Amino acid sequence: MTRTVYVNGTYLPEHEATVSIFDRGFLFADGVYEVTSVLDGKLIDFAGHAKRLQRSLDELEMANPTTEDELLAIHRELVRANTITEGLIYLQITRGAADRDFAYPEGVTPTIVLFTQAKTGLADNPMAKVGMKVISIEDQRWGRRDIKTVQLLYPSMGKMAAKAAGAHDAWMVEDGVVTEGTSNNAYIVKGNTIITRQLGHEILSGITRAAVLRMAREAQMKVDERPFTIDEAKAADEAFVTSASTFVMPVVEIDGVAIGTGAPGAVATRLREIYLDEMRKAAI
Ligand code: PMP
Questions:
Q1: Is 201 a residue whose pLDDT tops 90?
Q2: Are 250 and 232 in contact, with CB atoms under 8 Å apart?
Q3: CA-to-CA distance for 102 and 116, rounded, in angstroms?
Q4: Are residues 97 and 178 in the same domain?
Q5: Model-wide pTM > 0.90
Q6: Which residues contact 89 (CB under 8 A, 6 or more apart)?
Q7: Is the domain of 85 the same as that of 167?
Q8: Which CATH number fits the domain that encloses residue 20?
């Protein structure tokens, strides 16, 4: 099926959508993005993604070509036009097209692109029943991971390293402690405490992370936002990751070592249920 996509104010068939070869997203990875999931034809935590988008743009002194209301209308129109009941909406804004120059160009119109990806089995993901395996790798990304930029080559390399090792993903380690997964935030559970890296420039402030930690606290679970090592993770009772497309996903193996019983843990499983339940109710 030919998708309808959105480029710079126009809805059009995907094969007619174009962006300039001078676009700074293409030349400099000078762009930011968001991925919002769709369940039951509705957007999950749109407000959270819109807020983080604005923050990423502000950090890079990049103009926002839309208002939040316009952005919501575009998301909804793409869901409607492509009859998405379950899937993802990808949004990218770049600084725009200009002659190649390291300095930010003046007076350039930003580029904005949105497209959908239908994906069944997001909520009913069979992986949630068995859990995923991760390997650890050195975190070699730049120092402003709190800005959601499109420079994703190192995370791609990490995914490939994981695949080559027979695992699903990689957790990145810097100065001896875990930062995050290639495309998700990382957590361990020890006793009654959920442990996850504190926010800072070293990790992305996950929209799913914020919601899951809020729900965990509301459910009287203990949350400790602090660094942890891979050795501590291997000795944990449970491990899991969160992201907009995987929600809460149990991790059952790290570098070949089984975590806890080697099956998805009770905390991760419960948080996944609570998250899906609450977010479905709040979806717009
Ligand atoms: N960390 C990184 C590096 C990511 O790429 C992502 C997903 N974009 C996340 C964390 C999770 O963020 P969110 O819950 O907003 O999807």
A1: yes
A2: no
A3: 31
A4: no
A5: yes
A6: 35, 36, 37, 38, 43, 75, 78, 79, 114, 115, 116, 117
A7: no
A8: 3.30.470.10
Where does ligand 1 bind, in terms of residues with CB under 6 Å? 35, 180, 183-185, 204, 206-209, 242-244
Q: What are the start-end ranges of the E strands in 95-216? A: 111-118, 132-138, 169-174, 177-181, 185-190, 193-196
Structure tokens belonging to residue 98:
């200009």
pLDDT in tens, 84-101: 999 999 999 999 999 999
Residue owning the nearest CA to atom 3 of ligand 1: 183
Nearest one of 162, 176, 184 to 254, comparing CA atoms: 162
* CA neighbor of 155 nearest in space, from 206, 208, 203, 207: 203
The pLDDT score that the predictor gives to residue 1 is 78
Q: What's the total number of domains in the chain?
A: 2
- pLDDT tens-digit readout, 205-232: 999 999 999 999 999 999 999 999 999 9
Paired strand residues for 89: 36, 116
107 Cα: distance to centroid of ligand 1 (angstroms): 31
Q: Are strands 222-225 and 193-196 parallel, antiparallel or unpaired?
A: parallel
Asked whether residue 161 falls in the same domain as residue 60, the answer is no
Residues 279 and 122 sit within 8 Å (Cβ to Cβ): no
**Structural domain boundaries, residue 225:** 127-282
